[in-house]
Amino acid sequence: MKTFVRSLFKISCTVFLYLSSDLVVLAQHSNPITLAQPGYYRVQIGDVEVIALSDGTVPLDLHKVLTNTQPGEIDQLLKHNYEANPIEASVNAYLIKLNGKLILVDAGTAELYGPTLGHLSESIKRSGYTPEQIDAILVTHIHTDHTGGLMEGNKMVFPNATLYISQPEVDFWLGEESKAKAPERLQKWFHEAEVKVGPYLKAGKVKTFGYGAELFPGITPIASPGHTPGHTFYVLESKGQKLVFWGDIMHAAAIQFANPSVTIAFDVDPKKAALQRKRAYDEAARQGYLVAVAHISYPGIGHVRAEGSRFVWIPITYSTLGTGQ
């Protein structure tokens, strides 16, 4: 365990340095920006309604954060997809209505990344619910663009919710051994985990899990370590239909579908993250199920198609009835 933690820190020393760059400069501006779009979109998976929720978007300079790229590759692929650097990266969360329960997948950013983000609570309310009604939150991983929205100052934003987080993820970000071995420049990230997740842990509102069993009827966690040690997919199945919540398996669609080996500075273990990404793409393309992705352009739901060594993103068909596939 000690060797594992030490090696992870060697890899991750560069990871969070990027988070203090231009992206986080936006956080100095405290006034929120009003969403220009509704921020919620409904889809039906068998008997289960899933609502895609927007936390907002943020400029992301791919030249600074993407790794393992070839010269000119980023700009070439962006141009091919009618995009330009910096891209406008989405931060998506998802609300599952299951057997009378409201189950949220990830919790947004709150104040941490600037005024164009932090709109999850607003999107929940626009969809017809309130944060107080959320029963459970499935955390894909503890990076603060997925857990920042758990707290507003000293107040729990989701006071009636239980957090479900994999045991390896809790051990890494909230473990005393991990924090003690972290260099000084990384301490603030462990501090933010304590600030955002810690109050729920102290209140007995965190349930950790291993893998292999359902957390709720039709919802199963799948280990996908690499981006973080305890990164988790959540599989939703109902009446023969399937949706997999991918979390941070990828961040730049135009680049990483064309070249799955491209990694990002936020990966704790880039090689393992790239391997997980390729496996996820292969399976989704082969089986044809829907996936929901945190940082693909909102609503972030669609299919993956294989084309030779590359993959193509096929967004879900827009439907006024919420039945798009």
TrEMBL record:
InterPro entries: MBL_superfamily_lactonases, Metallo-B-lactamas, RibonucZ/Hydroxyglut_hydro
Pfam family, one: Lactamase_B
Signal peptide: 1-27
Gene Ontology MF annotations: hydrolase activity; metal ion binding
Residue ranges of domain Metallo-beta-lactamase in the record: 90-295
Keywords carried by this UniProt record: Hydrolase, Metal-binding, Signal, Zinc
Protein family: Belongs to the metallo-beta-lactamase superfamily.
Protein name, UniProt field: MBL fold metallo-hydrolase
Organism: Xanthocytophaga flava
Lineage: Bacteria, Pseudomonadati, Bacteroidota, Cytophagia, Cytophagales
